[in-house]
Amino acid sequence: MIEMLTVFDKANPFTKYQIDVIVKLGCYGIILFELIVSCLHQDFKQKSYTIEYLKEKFNCVDKYKNVAEFKRNVIDRAISDIHEYTTIRISYEQKKVGRSVSELLFSFEDISQKKIEETKEKGSNAPKDPFTNFKMSQKQLSLFASKIKKASGQDVEEIIKELSNVHLQSKHIDFLKVLDFVPSDWYTEAEIKKHPTPQQIAQEKLRAKQKAKEQAELEQAQLRQDYEVLLANAEEFVMANQKRIGIGIEKMYFEKGDYQGVVRIWERYLLSERDRKGFALLDEILSR
């Protein structure tokens, strides 16, 4: 604990927090506090860390083998302490590779800074052009998005996303004027910074597409691995699924005792997560 506070004092990234406040966070809280506060200068308040890195950082590589236990006893406890004693707010979501949690994506903000910025800008954020950076209530978004859909045929949810983003709402301004919408509230500069640009949205869609492709490849690789296990246990697996054996080549393989031949005929079903659910003894064999 003393070593941590000494490092903090030298680097001095936490001048707004007194030492006695930081001490209350406990060891885990201080470590997570250091990780998050060092990223607060970013425009997009998110940061991803691998499970391996976090376990090393929190010095519990061998203590919590189960990711759920690690999150509950380390990450959640640290966040709870930070929320109690500071103005930093943190949430996270887990990212998976295959069936395993590989990293945690943290989202965070300093609510004290947010309140200061909103106070400064309140009452002075209305632009000269009222249709620049305008806000719409949820009721307005639903109402006008439905009306725009009738004219454009565009999906309502997509229209709502565009109306809620200062970088995209301009495409609907002419419609809104015709529909007699008059802006009465506008986004602050701090809020505008959180709106992704078209380039960022395109990049995120590309990343999501690539990630989905990688996920599909990983799942297919796992299915292929499972298939090989079933081949290795072909006799037991086929005997448990005799009712699936029809006439023709399947039956011929079965009667000859060529159980792997039968499993190979079933290959396209066994390589489908949905189709393979109808097979008996599958989970039992794969769980060994």
Automatic annotation (TrEMBL):
**Keyword field:** Coiled coil
Q: Which InterPro entries match?
A: WH-like_DNA-bd_sf, WH_DNA-bd_sf
Q: Which residues form a coiled coil?
A: 199-233
Official protein name in the record: Replication initiation protein
Source species, please? Moraxella lacunata
